[in-house]
Amino acid sequence: MRAALLLSLLLATGAAAAPSVSLNGSLGKSAALLVIQGQVKTVRLGQTVEGVKLIEVGDDQAVVEVEGQRLQLRLGSAPVAQRAASAQKRIVLSAVEGGHFVTQGSINGHSVRFLVDTGATAVAIGIDDAKRMGLRYQNGQRIQAHTANGVTQAYVVTLDSVRIGEVEVGGVEAMVLMTSMPVALLGNSFLSRFQMKRENDILTLERRF
Fold first, then answer.
1. What distance in Å separates the CA atoms of residue 158 and residue 140, rounded to the nearest whole number?
2. In the record, which residues are listed under signal peptide (predicted)?
3. pLDDT value at position 11?
4. If we measure between CA atoms, which residue out of 158, 174, 157 comes closest to residue 122?
């Protein structure tokens, strides 16, 4: 009897499946047309509709938050839904010309292009990207960073999230360099959480913790 009652309570209070959502269009930088569970909704920046909060909107992309997880939407892409982070553990990358591994990802929900750099101690971000993302880097520890172009000023910060594909890692240390960078460097503060395996032009990152 008691077990049956407990089971009924768990079923009654269990979390509903996360809503599927896709981007149907944007209304400038202040609102987006989102398709939530098959219904088109006009959602203003910062507004939450049916469990979906609009965080950022651009011409062809938007960032939403669903059940505490940030999702990046692109115009015309298939609907996505929040997935359990623990189920997503593998990143597979293909080398580009020159043998480098470059991939699109996000930092704190903001789109960014990464270059995998096993020689970098931490994720490194140029000042332009940091400002675009609204990072409060001035609150971080100020240091001198040694780069290929010499010594430059930098700030050590902790990123809420770094996401590649469906794999998201929280609490990642990063350096914001006081110089422009064409890409962000995906350094060992992120890579050290993965087992890395390279086979020819394929790099596989398997989540360790």
1. 8
2. 1-17
3. 32
4. 174
Site of tokens 């939450």: 48
The answer to whether 105 and 164 are in contact (CB under 8 A) is yes
pLDDT in tens, 110-147: 999 999 999 999 999 999 999 999 999 999 999 998 87
According to DSSP, the β-strands at 123-126 and 167-177 are parallel
CA torsion through residues 186, 187, 189, 194, sign: positive
Q: What is the residue type of 138?
A: Q
Picking from 63, 175, 170, 189, the residue whose alpha carbon sits closest to that of residue 116 is: 189
Q: Which ranges of 50-112 would DSSP assign to H, the alpha helix?
A: none
pLDDT at 192: 95
What's the farthest any 2 CA atoms get from each other in the chain? 72
The answer to whether 57 and 7 are in contact (CB under 8 A) is: no
Whether the full predicted model's pTM is greater than 0.70, yes or no, is no
Which residue type is seen at 54?
Answer: L
* CA–CA gap between residue 71 and residue 106 (Å, rounded): 10
The torsion of the CA quartet 204, 20, 43, 132, rounded to 10 degrees, works out to 0
What is the DSSP pairing of strand 110-116 with strand 184-186? parallel
pLDDT in the model for residue 23: 86
pLDDT at 13 over 50: no
Give the whole-angstrom CA distance, residue 195 versus residue 209.
10
| Under 8 Å between Cβ of 126 and 181 | yes
